[in-house]
Structure formats: C-alpha cells, structure tokens
Amino acid sequence: MTKVKNANGSSRFPAPKGYSSWLEYWEAMTGRKAYSCGALGCNGTDLVGAHVQKADSLDRSWYITPLCKSCNQRTDEFYVTSELVPVPSNI
C-alpha cells in the first residue's frame, strides 16, 4: 500500500507511443488487467491510468496507477493498493 496524491497538469501528456491509453500502458507494464479502482476502499470501475506522485516522499517522480474517474479528481492524499508504474522519462 502506498500513499499518493494526484499529479497536477498531467492530462496534457499523451500515452506512450504504441499504447492507446495510460491504462493500457499500466496493464502492459504490470502484466495485469485493471478491473477496479486502486484507491483503498473504492471499487469504481470507470478506470483511467492516473498520474500520481508518492506522498510524504522525496521522490517527485510521476507514476501511473488505475483509478476511477472520481478518485482521479481527488485533491487529498490517499492510499492505493495497486502497483505504481513509473512514467517514462521521455514524456
């Protein structure tokens, strides 16, 4: 479980070449299919590949994790149980 916050301004970045969405990228990198929101306590199924940053960390990198559209709009810090996939550095 990792404490995260949504990354601001990330919607301007298209998914990496060869992927139709950030969610597809996450699934390819993890080898898993996303079925529900990765936020702890949420079971939403309208998923996106959300850009998040680790909260309470010196790591300022951006990561992708599956979140429902509602949790992707959160402005607080929250826990996710899904794996974090680093955003490629060439983005």
Radius of gyration: 12 Å
Beta-strand percentage range? 25-35%
Record field, number of beta strands: 5
Q: Terminal Cα separation, in Å?
A: 26 Å
Helices and strands: which structural class? mainly beta
- Overall shape: globular
Count helical runs. 1
Q: Helical percent range?
A: under 10%
N-to-C series of helices and strands: EHEEEE
Strand ordering within the main sheet: 4-1-2-3-5
**Low-confidence segments:** none
Main sheet properties: 5 strands, antiparallel
Mean pLDDT across the residues is: 94
Task: Give a structural overview.
By secondary structure, the chain is mostly beta strands. 10% of the residues lie in helices and 26% in strands. It has 1 helix and 5 strands, in the order βαββββ. A 5-stranded antiparallel beta sheet has the order 4-1-2-3-5. The chain is globular. The model has no long low-confidence stretch (mean pLDDT 94).
